[in-house]
Amino acid sequence: MIIGVIVKTKKAMLSFFRENNLPVFHIQHISTSSEAQFFAPETEGVKINKDVYPINQEPVMIKHTPDSFFQTELNDALEKQNVKHLVISGLLDRKSNPYKRRNSNMIVKEIGNKEGPTIILLHGGGLSYWSWQSIVNQLQTDFHIVTPIIDGHGEDGEEEFTSISDSAAKLIHYIDRQYDGKVFAIGGLSIGAQIVTEVLSLRENIAEYALIESALVYPIKGITAMTIPAYKLCYGLINKRWFSKMQAKMLCVSPDMFERYYQDSIKISRQSLINITLSNGNYELKSSIANTKVKVLIIVGEKEIGIMKKSAKKLYHTIQGSELYIAPKMKHGEISLRYPEKYVALLKSFLGVFLRSDYSK
Asked: What are phi and psi of 180, to 5 degrees?
C-alpha cells in the first residue's frame, strides 16, 4: 500500500493493513522546483499527517515527481516482498496516475538483435518513434535499437511534457535500470538531440558514442513572451489537415509518414506544446558537457538557420574530440528524415562499423 500525504478518513485502511501484517510503504512528496510552495522542503506541506504517521520502521520513500516509481526504491521494495496486488491511497490530481506503470516512466519501442550493441534514438518535437523506422530497418540486423517516446507525443500524449531536464533524467534512469548505466550509442534529433546533450552534461560516460543532430543550445530571445499567446490562438489548427501538411513539410516529414504524423500530432495537448516550445527555445548548453568521455558526432544542415549552425559550432568547440558534419544543401532534420541511407552511412562511418565481425558491445 502506498500512502502519501493522506486525509484522516484513510486511517482505517492503514489500520487494516497493520492489523493483518500486510506490507506498508509510505511515499513522501518533496518538490525540487524553485517555484514550489506547498510541497517545498522544510514546509508544513511535506509533513506526513499524524493520523497516518509511519510506525515500526515502516519505510518512507521520498519522491520529487508525481510518479511514485520514478527515481525511488519502491519498485525494488515491491519485488523484494513479492507484492502482486497494490492498494494505493493518497491525494491525487488529474496529472498523477500511479496506476500507469511504464518502463522507467518512459514508453519505449525495442527492435533488432538483442545480442547486439544497444543504440537509443530520440525523435524530434512533434514526431515519435516511427520517424526512425527507415533507419531502424537498416540497423536492426546487427544492433539492438531502442526508440523512446518523449512525454507528450504520440502514444504518450496523455503524459504532459514538462522539460528537457526531466526527459534527460528519465532516460538516464532507464539506462541505469536496463543497461547498468551505459549503452553503445545514443542519438537524437532536435529536442531529442537536446535531451541527449543534457544527458551527456549529467553523465560523462553513459555511452561510447553519441549523435547530436540539429540541437539548439542558444536561448531564443522573447520565446517565453510569444509562446503562450501564440498557442492560445493557433492550437485548434492542429486538427486541420492542411495545417498539418504545412507543418509536416517544414519538419521534413516524408509524404509516406504524413498520416502517422497527423494522427500523433492531434494527441499533443496545448500545455505539452507550450512546454516543448519553451524548453526547446530556452535551452542553454551546460559547461559540464566539456567533461564527457563520449565520442560525439554533431550534425547540422547547411540550409538551417544561423542560430542552429552557431549551436552546432558551439557544441563542436566545447566537446573535445568531437566531429562536426554539415549536411550539404539540407534543412533542419532533413538527413535523418528524408535521407536515411545517408544518415546510416554517416553513422557507420563515425562508428567505424561496416561488418558484423567488427561490432562490439
From this structure: 55, 35
How far apart (Å, rounded) are the C-alpha atoms in residues 336 and 134? 9
The set of cell numbers assigned to 76 is 525494488
- pLDDT tens, position by position, 250-308: 888 889 999 999 999 888 999 998 999 999 999 999 999 999 999 999 999 999 999 99
All three cell numbers of 132, joined, read 526512425
**Cβ atoms 33, 76 nearer than 8 A:** no
Distance CA 195, CA 150 (A): 10
- How many CB atoms are closer than 10 A to CB 284? 9
- Taken as a whole, the chain contains a residue count of 361
Burial (CB < 10 A; 0-12, 13-18, 19+), residue 285, is buried
CB 3 within 8 A of CB 90: yes
Strand partners for 2: 25, 88
Q: Provide the grid cell at 155.
A: 502514444
DSSP string, 301-316: ETTS-HHHHHHHHHHH
Do the beta carbons of residue 149 and residue 155 sit within 8 Å? Answer: yes
In single-letter form, the type of residue at position 359 comes to: Y
Express each pLDDT in 78-123 by its tens digit.
Answer: 888 888 888 877 655 444 443 343 444 788 999 999 899 999 999 9
Backbone dihedral angles phi then psi of residue 298, each to the nearest 5 degrees: -105, 130
What are 157-181's pLDDT values in tens digits?
A: 888 899 999 999 999 999 998 999 9
All structural domains of the chain, each given as residue ranges with its CATH number in brackets, are 2-89 (3.40.50.850), 107-358 (3.40.50.1820)
Note if the pTM is more than 0.90.
no
Phi, psi of 306 (to 5 degrees): -55, -40
**String of DSSP letters for 247-283:** HHHHTT--GGGHHHHHHHHTTS-HHHHHHHHHHHHH-
